[in-house]
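in:
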């Protein structure tokens, strides 16, 4: 469904990712692991059209070379960026409306909003509350629900559990597991190796802008020392 071939990602003159190749098949949950600065966010940014890149990114059989950020959203790519970027002065409901900006069918959008309020009762109960008043975990749920409002084919998640208390982390992982169950294709960037591996159909380990290892989750076995060494996460 999504194929990156020899992708280099640039921030101005700086090459952050050096020719990586990654595949995500329909319905899979693929996990990108790696220490800080490895190029994980840069990779997701290139897919979403936010960062400049060379090499090919193909999505649903089309090369995205000249596709804008909006074109990619319309094609079915949704990014949940690092750091829960909600609109804190808008209500929970208004945040979801914004997530549907690429869609025209208003009644279908309203129906989806109700659907997500049922799926995420914490959001439903707070629909008229300013999003900035939500807890960190609730804001993460809102960010994910907002991304889902574009009815994506693939969800790119950038460290969704970062900075959340362990119990809230578990809720976020449960939600991602449910999305996977429902058939959503997911590319997940995580530092929380153990939880991420449980969801992973396939894993890429990124280090200093290169894929250094890849395989299914058995790649890491039960060797936590190896895992820590490979990912820089202890
Ligand atoms: N906007 C930017 N401008 C310049 N360098 C950047 C920018 N964003 C990231 N980088 C650099 O690119 C490399 C990869 O960063 P990033 O993709 O954020 O890694 P990760 O998400 O794995 O922590 C790092 O060396 C980082 O300093
Ligand atoms: Mg990052």
């Amino acid at each position: 469904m999504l194929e990156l071939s020899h992708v280099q990602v640039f921030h101005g003159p700086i090459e952050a990712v050096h020719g990586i190749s990654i595949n995500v098949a329909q319905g899979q949950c693929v996990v990108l692991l790696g220490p800080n600065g490895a190029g994980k966010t840069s990779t997701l940014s290139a897919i979403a059209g936010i960062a400049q890149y060379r090499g090919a990114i193909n999505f649903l059989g089309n090369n995205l070379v000249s596709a804008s950020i909006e074109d990619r959203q319309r094609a079915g790519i949704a990014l949940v960026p690092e750091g829960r970027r909600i609109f804190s002065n808008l209500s929970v409901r208004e945040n979801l409306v914004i997530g549907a900006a690429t869609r025209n069918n208003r009644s279908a959008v309203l129906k989806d909003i109700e659907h997500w309020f049922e799926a995420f009762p914490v959001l439903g109960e707070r629909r008229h509350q300013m999003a900035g008043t939500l807890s960190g975990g609730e804001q993460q749920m809102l960010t994910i629900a907002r991304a889902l409002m574009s009815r994506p084919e693939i969800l790119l998640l950038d460290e969704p559990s970062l900075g959340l208390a362990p119990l809230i982390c578990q809720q976020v992982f449960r939600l991602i597991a449910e999305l996977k169950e429902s058939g959503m294709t997911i590319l997940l960037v995580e530092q929380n190796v153990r939880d991420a591996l449980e969801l992973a159909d396939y894993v890429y380990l990124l280090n200093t802008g290169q894929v250094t290892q890849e395989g299914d989750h058995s790649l890491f076995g039960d060797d936590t020392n190896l895992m820590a060494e490979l990912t820089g996460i202890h």
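note: The longest strand covers residues 14-24.
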